[in-house]
């Protein structure tokens, strides 16, 4: 099947970017210039540029033009639940190890558990959970999102009911749950990839269609799951490093 004309133009521009003809921060030719070069209409040239925007190669600036995207430095996230037994935040520790100032903003509210969340937490449909929405930052720039859920039947009336408020704020799930008598013994993570949604692109400052990793994480005690979260990580900003303890006789 013959590829649409706009895709063939996008292929050529992509090769110029990868080959260094256009470097990070360089301005691409205007739609009119591309239309003239490839003997197509301005609409076809615009569709080619939009394809590259969706793939994350370029960014469009209203009234200015289209520029080759500057790729942020790739940083590492260490996935190892038992690190949370340390004082403080594992995310902040990861950032500090890479000379980056880590932080986050968060909002919490009680909600009825969506069906998939109720299943992950072994709750009855519609059970109340505390939902906390996070935007994690590195040197003040948004780098990662997370939405976590904790059963209110466990935390209601305790000092940890609001994960980011009170004396245990920012301490991580393992440490917080331990303070109310729930000892986490293991965690599970399922990693998938997909295109970012509109709200995610806005919160992260990434282009439409940018590929993100989604980590579905759940913490368990011996008796039950006590927290689950969906963590959204742009693939061009982080790599995941898993540390797995191996017991030997």
Automatic annotation (TrEMBL):
Key word Transcription regulation present: yes
One Pfam family linked to the record: GntR
Alphabetically ordered keywords of this record: DNA-binding, Transcription, Transcription regulation
The keyword Transcription regulation is assigned to this record: yes
Domain HTH gntR-type: start-end pairs: 3-71
SUPFAM superfamilies for the chain: Chorismate lyase-like, Winged helix' DNA-binding domain
InterPro entries for the chain: Bact_HTH_transcr_reg (IPR050679), Chorismate_lyase_/UTRA_dom_sf (IPR028978), Tscrpt_reg_HTH_GntR (IPR000524), UTRA (IPR011663), WH-like_DNA-bd_sf (IPR036388), WH_DNA-bd_sf (IPR036390)
CDD domains membership: WHTH_GntR
Protein name: UTRA domain-containing protein
């Amino acid at each position: 099947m013959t590829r649409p004309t706009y895709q063939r133009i996008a292929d050529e521009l992509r090769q110029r970017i990868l080959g260094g003809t256009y470097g990070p921060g360089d301005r691409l030719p205007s739609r009119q210039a591309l239309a003239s070069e490839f003997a197509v209409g301005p609409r076809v040239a615009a569709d080619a540029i939009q394809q590259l925007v969706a793939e994350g190669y370029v960014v469009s600036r209203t009234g200015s033009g289209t520029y080759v995207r500057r790729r942020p430095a790739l940083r590492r996230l260490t996935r190892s639940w038992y690190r949370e037994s340390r004082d403080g935040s594992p995310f902040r520790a990861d950032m500090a190890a890479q000379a980056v100032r880590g932080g986050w903003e968060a909002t919490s509210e009680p909600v009825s558990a969506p069906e998939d969340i109720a299943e992950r937490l072994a709750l009855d449909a519609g059970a109340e959970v505390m939902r906390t929405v996070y935007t994690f930052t590195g040197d003040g720039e948004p780098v990662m999102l997370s939405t976590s859920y904790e059963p209110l039947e466990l935390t209601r009336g305790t000092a940890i009911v609001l994960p980011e408020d009170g004396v245990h704020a920012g301490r991580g799930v393992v440490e917080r749950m331990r303070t109310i008598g729930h000892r986490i013994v293991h965690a599970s993570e399922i990693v998938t990839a997909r295109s970012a949604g509109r709200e995610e692109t806005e919160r992260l400052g990434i282009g439409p269609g940018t590929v993100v990793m989604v980590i579905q994480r759940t913490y368990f005690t011996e008796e039950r799951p006590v927290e689950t979260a969906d963590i959204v990580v742009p693939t061009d900003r982080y790599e995941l490093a898993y540390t797995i303890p191996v017991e030997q006789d």
